[in-house]
Amino acid sequence: MGIISTDKNKITLIYNSGTSLGKQTYSYVYTSDKDILAIDTSKTNITGTQWLEIAEGLDLEISDLIQKEFPNYKKLYDPKVILEPEDWIKIIKNHPEVVLFPIIILGEKFYQIKNPSDFIRLSNANLHNVSRN
């Protein structure tokens, strides 16, 4: 059992309101008829264990969550340095704005939202699967 609560009737959005993609994704998710748990990483700390669970849910390494080409990241860290998972977690915790994409949790599934309209596609697919069962 994971640390992050999952529920088929709830949408969890992990986003940064300081980014255009984060704000737009939030707007799309807000229109859903499901219960929404929106976690703004610019205002709410997510634990290292939770970040690891998110990466695992996405089938990614923790370092893959970070936008290493982000100018602020390059100012803070040398992109060529090889870091351990604990180091990547510290970077995310101290600078959540470097997380590449908002993350949606629908039921037990985790998704990166690369375009705000991705949410509509995921939501429609999720409703279609529910109506078949």
Please specify the SSE layout and strand pairing.
Elements: E1 10-15, H1 20-30, E2 35-40, H2 48-57, H3 71-76, H4 85-94, E3 103-106, E4 109-112, H5 118-132
Parallel strand pairs: 1-2
Antiparallel strand pairs: 1-3, 3-4
Would you write up a description of this structure?
- The protein is α+β, with helices and mostly antiparallel strands.
- The chain has a single domain (10-132), classed as Glutaredoxin.
- Helices cover 39% and strands 15% of the residues.
- The chain has helices spanning 20-30, 48-57, 71-76, 85-94, 118-132, and strands at 10-15, 35-40, 103-106, 109-112.
- It has a four-stranded mixed β-sheet, covered by helices on one side.
- The chain starts with 9 loop residues before the first strand and ends with a helix.
What are the key terms here?
133 residues, disordered C terminus, 15% strand, four-stranded mixed sheet, 39% helix, 4 strands, alpha+beta, Glutaredoxin
